[in-house]
């Protein structure tokens, strides 16, 4: 597949920060929730090294919010996820797989509990809002469902604490992982969570006012000079090494949550009512026949625009690589693959074709780091 330009239109939404990242030299985008999501600046590898050593500001407005509020909002949110939210607390964020009636994955949002009757589902790339509206209508739930104008700025990397404390005060350092609170900066209040799609630590600022967000963006760069701040984005290499899963890439609506390693977020013994519960119980009893595993391949490049098939020595299908990139840390290609039983054991070997040549790879545990 050659590089191709994508035509601009209203359907392909820009963000309040697009002009800024364009001026700063964004070098590629992906499309996520019908919106531009930057994919690289200098290069995947240069961005990766910088993210692991300094601090980056990310335009992740494409992580859209589905706001569910009203009397039956808790019931609806619980109906959509197999994670037991009955003991959930306001001020906390919950990573939670969304499941359909068949027990298959719909999305893997962070669920933010803003109040007993107000929730933000910070979604991955699928149209959760229609799923939620359909369920609300079918169940006669008293809820309001909308996509509010929220545009997240993520501040990620080992120096993110220092940069954020400089703007929002030392008390932001006390914010715990997957908790959120409100912090002031220049007459504006910001919803800030300690979270983000990297393993380097950081925060996510859920910006509700475009102008305030744009000003904040500029202040982050002005104040961040001493920390070598740069624009960045979710980094393919870093997120594969950390096993941060990507809906549409690593798993989709043809996979169940056991296959995608979501076991610790599946609460089948709880009292709560959620979609697909009986089917998940059956899947759990029968056992799965494939699951997501790490793979290492003895090569220095791989181009991913579709699944890549893995074979054994007799040309039986071992599985499919779903995301992969060259890792400067491991000096080989690392990837996330759906591997069939019985080929899924650590150190099991397979063959893969890349650019018309055959290479050898091995199955390994996730995460890599
Ligand atoms: N932040 C926000 N919204 C998002 C994402 C995000 N929406 C889209 C996408 N990312 C949703 N998917 C994920 C996947 C992984 C994590 C968060 C969102 C994640 N996982 C941690 C881990 O695996 O180490 C912690 C999970 C846990 O144990 O609770 O952070 O990034 N706003």
3D architecture notes:
The chain is an alpha+beta fold and 369 residues long. Among the domains are: 18-63 and 150-240, Gyrase A, domain 2 (2-Layer Sandwich); 289-369, Aminomethyltransferase beta-barrel domains (Elongation Factor Tu (Ef-tu), domain 3). It has 8 helices and 21 strands. The strands form 5 sheets. The protein has a 6-stranded mixed β-sheet, with helices on both faces. Strand 17 and strand 18 (317-327) form a beta hairpin. The longest helix is centred in the middle third of the chain and has 14 residues, at 210-223. The protein is globular. The relative contact order is 0.14. The mean pLDDT is 97. The structure holds (6S)-5,6,7,8-tetrahydrofolate. (6S)-5,6,7,8-tetrahydrofolate binds next to loops.
How would you briefly describe this protein structure?
By secondary structure, the chain is α+β, with helices and mostly antiparallel strands.
Topology:
Elements: H1 18-23, E1 28-32, E2 35-40, H2 44-53, E3 56-59, E4 65-69, H3 73-80, E5 93-95, E6 98-99, E7 105-107, E8 110-115, E9 118-122, H4 128-138, E10 144-146, E11 151-156, H5 160-168, E12 180-185, E13 188-193, E14 202-207, H6 210-223, E15 230-232, H7 236-241, H8 277-286, E16 290-297, E17 308-311, E18 317-327, E19 332-340, E20 349-354, E21 357-364
Parallel strand pairs: 3-15
Antiparallel strand pairs: 1-2, 3-11, 4-9, 4-10, 5-8, 6-7, 8-9, 11-14, 12-13, 13-14, 16-19, 16-21, 17-18, 18-19, 20-21
CATH architecture of the domain at 18-63 and 150-240: 2-Layer Sandwich
Work out the number of β strands. Answer: 21
Strand order of the largest sheet: 12-13-14-11-3-15
Gross morphology is globular
Q: How many distinct helices?
A: 8
The average pLDDT is: 97
Strand content: 25-35%
CATH superfamily of the domain at 18-63 and 150-240: Probable tRNA modification gtpase trme, domain 1
What is the CATH class of the domain at 18-63 and 150-240?
A: Alpha Beta
State the major sheet: 6 strands, mixed
User: What small ligands are held by the chains?
Assistant: (6S)-5,6,7,8-tetrahydrofolate
Output the structural class. alpha+beta
Ranges with pLDDT <50 over ≥5 residues? none
């Amino acid at each position: 597949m050659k590089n191709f330009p994508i035509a601009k239109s209203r359907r392909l939404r820009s963000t309040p920060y697009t002009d800024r990242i364009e001026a700063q030299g964004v070098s590629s985008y992906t499309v996520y929730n019908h919106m531009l999501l930057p994919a690289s600046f200098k290069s995947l590898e240069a961005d990766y090294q910088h993210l692991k050593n300094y601090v980056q500001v990310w335009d992740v407005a494409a992580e859209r919010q589905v706001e569910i509020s009203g009397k039956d909002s808790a019931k609806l949110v619980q109906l959509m996820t197999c994670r037991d939210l009955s003991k959930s607390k306001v001020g906390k964020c919950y990573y939670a797989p969304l499941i359909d009636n068949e027990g298959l994955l719909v999305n893997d949002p962070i669920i933010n509990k803003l109040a007993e009757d107000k929730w933000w589902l910070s979604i991955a790339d699928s149209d959760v809002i229609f799923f939620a509206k359909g369920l609300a209508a079918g169940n006669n739930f008293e809820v309001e469902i909308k996509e509010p104008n929220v545009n997240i700025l993520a501040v990620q990397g080992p120096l993110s604490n220092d940069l954020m404390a400089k703007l929002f005060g030392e008390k932001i350092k006390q914010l715990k992982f997957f908790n959120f609170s409100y912090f002031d900066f220049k007459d504006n209040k910001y919803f800030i969570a300690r979270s983000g799609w990297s393993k380097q630590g950081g925060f996510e600022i859920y910006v509700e006012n475009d102008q305030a967000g744009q000003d904040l963006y500029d202040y982050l760069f002005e104040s961040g000079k001493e920390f070598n701040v740069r624009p960045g984005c979710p980094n393919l290499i870093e997120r594969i090494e950390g096993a941060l899963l990507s809906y549409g890439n690593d798993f989709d609506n043809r996979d169940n949550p056991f296959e995608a390693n979501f076991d610790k977020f599946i609460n089948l013994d709880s009292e709560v009512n959620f979609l697909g519960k009986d089917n998940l119980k059956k899947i759990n009893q029968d056992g799965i026949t494939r699951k997501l595993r790490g793979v290492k391949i003895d090569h220095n490049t791989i181009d991913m625009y579709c699944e890549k098939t893995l074979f054994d020595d007799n040309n039986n299908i071992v599985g499919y690589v779903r995301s992969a990139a060259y890792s400067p840390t491991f000096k080989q290609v690392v990837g996330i693959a759906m591997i069939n039983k019985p080929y899924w054991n650590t150190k099991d070997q397979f063959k893969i074709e890349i650019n018309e040549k055959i290479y050898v790879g091995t199955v390994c545990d996730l995460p890599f780091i």
